[in-house]
């Protein structure tokens, strides 16, 4: 498989850019997380940027594989990918900046659905691209548990 550098860099820039922009927009609000009542099973705050960085990197590679494919259905798959990225971007704003924990939880459920649809569509084109999104799905399912728990406890 030949690597096309420009599309790869653009794919990574889009996914990492969305994550970086969301982090920047919410950076002053992360202290909220430290002051919340949290469930028994929760990670330390410093772990989030590491995990998200890895996940955005995997998402970029996954989208690159689809973008460079010859599939007739790649445009539909990439539209769902873009839609889930947009939903992903707004979740931390709802949760951290606006402290709308319940709305953020249901927003996160929407993200889970969109990621599942994206995985299914990507899998029809390239199974590797779909598998690269599975850690992301697992993480946002865990984030759903955290979000729900925090909404209940706070």
Topology:
Elements: H1 5-26, H2 31-35, H3 47-67, H4 74-97, H5 101-125, H6 127-153
Helix pairs in contact: 1-3, 1-4, 3-6, 4-5, 5-6
Strand content: under 5%
Q: What would you call the structural class?
A: mainly alpha
The tally of helices reads 6
- Terminal CA distance: 50 Å
**CATH architecture label:** Up-down Bundle
- Gyration radius (Cα, Å) is 16 Å
Uncertain runs are: none
The structural domain count equals: 1
Percent helix, as a range, is over 70%
Could you give a short description of this structure?
The chain is mainly α and 154 residues long. The protein has six helices and no strands. It is 81% helix and 0% strand.
Detailed description of the structure:
By secondary structure, this protein is mostly helical. It has a single domain, classed as Ferritin. It is built from 6 helices and no strands. It has helices at 5-26, 31-35, 47-67, 74-97, 101-125, 127-153. The longest helix is centred in the last third of the chain and has 27 residues, at 127-153. The chain is elongated and about 50 Å long. The mean pLDDT is 95.
List keywords for this structure.
154 residues; mainly alpha; Ferritin; 6 helices
